[in-house]
Amino acid sequence: MKLYAFDGSPTSRTVLLFCAEEGIDFEKVDIDLLAGAHLTESYRKVNPCAFVPALEAGDYRLSESSAILKYLADKFDSKAYPSDLKLRGKVNECMDWLNTSLYRVMGYNFIYPQIYAHHRREPEEVNEGTVEWGRQRTRQYLELLDSHWLGEKRFLCGDEISLADYFGAPIISQFDLIRANLGPYRNVARWMGEMRKLKSWEQVHRMHGQYAASLANRRFVTL
Hints:
It is built from nine helices and four strands; from the N terminus they run βαβαββααααααα. It is an alpha+beta fold.
């Protein structure tokens, strides 16, 4: 089983973190996004969408992190993806919200237009407007994450860690890049503190931490 991934990618880290914590063995194939490895003809044969991660098990391939997590959880009978349909439905619901609501706004309309040239809008006034809109919406979604999805629960879907946590925490860690203070979102900060204590967190997020440190002298619009 091969996992095509890039340590700097939050969607790759969701799968890498889950596999590390669950002790799932795989052959890792590094796809260096910074070098354009995802755009090569050889990788497009694996994933025509040219994104990471991608899973290859014989002639079976998956190319979305959420789908990969669910497949692996079922394959290896993980307790992080409950078999009870109602509990599983809640995990699916939370993962979908994180992916299609929170991450879409915070990543592509708030953080990434400030960091990556290929995510910037032109002219500069448009980019600034995008970032400000993204900041306002991100705040709204963080309030929802704090009060609705988390509340007083230890993890997103209850007292036990689930795929939703493995999926969501590496995404929320992207706030490290712009040095955002999550303190006002008490439950989010508490939950992220729990996730950062996982034995594999530092190893999986080493490149992420190095990249965040390299941005220390840049000024960002933050929360």
